[in-house]
Design a protein that fits this description.
alpha/beta; UDP-N-acetylmuramoyl-L-alanine:D-glutamate ligase; eight-stranded mixed beta sheet; five-stranded mixed beta sheet; 13 helices; 24% strand; globular
């Protein structure tokens, strides 16, 4: 038995969500539905222009892989996370949040100069999220933050695609994947965002190497990666880089491939108000499922239901007790 079900690595960020209109996105010069890297000055300028808007979620630890690992932990998985935060109030908030979730890790506030990364998430009326991320000290995440022993003692190693935007982060992801393969840990990666696939495909290919055991993406990312016009063509292409995969399709549910067969997962009907964190929750719930004896169909059902719960509220995470409610709703 491995010590950890899941070891994740990714940007350690603190999220702030604000509701905006499409017209405001245009005025602000924010590309809708994408993650855009910005410097601290640009991020603060956006906040200043949005002063007085209703913030729908309290500031909380975030980052794609961290959200997924946190979800898996609240479902009941033993988890480990590697990231990098600064010695500031946001760094303390981040560390406190993941400790509260029971996540293991060597995460301490770095003595290196810098600020903890922050993500400004703008939610438009159609529930779409547009992210403006200042990575801060998280851009310096490197192989130094990897714990080789903990990784070797993990069943799955999970990498967020966002790490491709940082040279040191990409190197850490590649090194971690090598350690995982050498020690019999399965590898998983998320494409994370359509913009990542569009602008960093070469870097993602480098991270994927000879392929991963499990890939997460949404339909837009799958089509962009493959250059295909239809989902079936994209599925064929994904089989060349991943032994198994899950493609989320929003209101159309999901498609998962277990290495032999495709499974169609129906959507759960909800009134969506905020899609931020939906893919992260899907990945976290799915990884919990397949490390706890669920088949891909069952894991997909849990992941789809949990993601639907996330989009029906503001904020990228569910309260701790809601995870058991999701299990009960799907499996009784």
């Amino acid at each position: 038995m491995k010590t950890y079900h899941l070891y994740g690595i990714g940007a350690a960020l603190v999220d702030t969500e604000i509701q905006v209109t499409d017209a405001e996105l245009e005025t602000l010069g924010v590309e809708k539905g994408m993650m855009t890297l910005v410097d601290e000055v640009r991020q603060q300028a956006l906040l200043d222009q949005l002063e007085g808007h209703l913030v729908h979620s309290k500031q909380a630890s975030g980052g794609s892989a961290c959200n997924s690992v946190t979800a898996a932990a609240y479902f009941g998985a033993n988890c480990y996370f590697s990231g990098k935060v600064a010695q500031d109030e946001f760094g303390r908030l981040f560390v406190d949040d993941i400790r509260k979730a029971g996540i293991g890790g060597d995460l301490v506030m770095s003595e290196d100069p810098g600020v903890t990364g922050k993500c400004l998430v703008l939610i438009s009326p159609d529930a779409e999220r547009s992210m403006n991320t200042h990575l801060g000290i998280s851009a310096e995440l490197s192989v130094k933050e990897l714990n080789e022993q903990a990784l070797a003692e993990s069943e799955f190693f999970y990498v967020e695609g966002y790490l491709v935007t940082s040279e040191s982060g990409r190197a850490a992801a590649i090194r971690g994947l090598e350690i995982a393969r050498r020690n019999g840990a399965k590898t998983a990666l998320s494409f994370s965002d359509p913009g990542i696939v569009t602008h960093f495909k070469d870097g993602l290919s480098e991270m994927l190497g000879d392929g991963v055991d499990l890939l997460f993406c949404n339909e837009a990312e799958a089509l962009s990666w493959s250059g295909a016009e239809h989902l079936q063509e994209a599925i064929t292409a994904l089989k060349t880089i991943a032994k198994t995969f899950a493609i989320t399709r929003g209101a159309n549910g999901a498609v998962v491939f277990d290495g032999q067969a495709l499974h169609t997962i129906p959507a759960v009907s909800v009134d969506a108000v905020d899609t931020n964190g939906a893919g992260d929750m899907f990945a976290g719930a799915f990884l919990y499922g397949i490390t706890h004896g669920f088949g891909y169909q069952q894991a997909g059902q849990l992941a789809t239901h949990a993601a639907a719960m996330v989009v029906s509220q503001y904020g990228p995470r569910l309260p701790g007790e809601a995870h058991q409610a999701a299990l009960a709703a799907v499996f009784g």
